[in-house]
Design brief:
By secondary structure, the chain is α+β, with helices and mostly antiparallel strands. The chain has three domains: 61 residues, no CATH class; 107 residues, Band 7 domain (Tetrahydropterin Synthase, Chain A); 60 residues, no CATH class. It contains eight helices and nine strands. Helix 2 crosses helix 3, helix 3 packs across helix 5 and helix 6 crosses helix 7.
Length: 289
């Protein structure tokens, strides 16, 4: 009886020591075994492992990709436009020993804080060297890759790998929205005025060209008409001259008839002229002289 009473506590202590000596490393983890704070072993293979109770400390780190959501950051671009940028990153621990030396007992939380500081610094450097139109265009992908590469180099000492950086949102601060809208409206109005001015200038050129063409065409037509009229008059005069040469008396009679027609035209014609005038020679006689 006394022996059983002695064995039971011993067995209980032994079981407790055995349980406290064993630990399991998950396949998604890397474990560090510390001896009074100093790293003595890195266990990356999953399975059951043992330690010295009270002396060994086991620290486990997640091997999976971890998220990092940063606080919105106000950035001034190269063209002096300010944007509120909201970014996030994905990272993982690649060297558990280096990670432990870099962040100590702070673990993932301390590393996230330092990574956010690095990321914010690179956001300001990269975005501050470009105009805002690149941030709002397809070139944003190249900017994010540049930020990732620069931040990755600076985070190597933490024992981590920065896998990706993405800009979720890039908006103007609330106090700058109205000013930006006014500037955009003024720019559009200026562009509209320029287009109207160019249109008016083009219209004036077209009208001037059309007016010049009208003048040239009219002048050419008038010149051709004058030439034809002159040729016709010359031909007519030649016919008259030939007719006069053949029969001068008939030609004089014909010219007198034309004069009578013009002089006596109208229903109420009055002429004051001497009756003995040669004008009435062909009215006094019924024969041609």
């Amino acid at each position: 009886m006394n022996r059983s009473a002695f064995l039971l506590p011993v067995l209980a202590i032994a079981a407790l020591v055995a349980l406290s000596s064993a630990y399991i490393v998950d396949e998604r983890e890397t474990a560090l075994r510390l001896w009074f704070g100093e790293v003595t072993a890195e266990i990356s293979e999953p399975g059951l492992n043992f330690k010295v109770p009270m002396f060994h400390e086991i620290v486990k780190y997640d091997d999976r990709i971890l998220p990092l959501d940063t606080q919105p950051l106000e950035v001034t671009m190269k063209d002096n436009r300010r944007f509120e940028v909201d970014a996030f990153a994905r990272w993982r621990i690649t060297d558990a020993k280096q990670f432990r030396r870099a962040v100590g007992g702070g673990g993932v939380r301390a590393a996230s804080g330092r990574l956010e500081t690095i990321l914010n610094s690179e956001l300001r450097l990269v975005l501050g060297d470009v105009n805002s139109d690149k941030l709002l265009s397809e070139e944003r992908v190249a900017l994010m890759n540049s930020i990732r590469d620069a931040a990755r180099l600076k985070s190597v000492d933490l024992g981590v790998e920065l896998i990706d950086v993405r800009i979720k949102r890039a908006d103007l601060p609330e106090q700058n929205l109205e000013e930006t809208f006014e500037r955009m409206r003024a720019e559009r109005q200026r562009e509209a005025a320029d287009e109207i001015a160019r249109g008016n200038e083009a219209a004036q050129r077209v009208r001037a060209s059309a007016d010049r063409l009208v003048v040239e065409t009219t002048s050419e037509a008038q010149k051709n008409a004058d030439i034809i009229r002159g040729e016709a008059d010359a031909k007519r005069n030649a016919i008259f001259a030939e007719a006069f040469g053949r029969d001068p008396e008939f030609f004089a009679f014909y010219r007198s008839l034309g004069a009578y027609e013009k002089a006596l035209k109208g229903s109420n014609s009055t002429m004051v002229i001497s009756p003995d005038s040669e004008f009435f020679d062909y009215l006094k006689s019924d024969t041609i002289k």
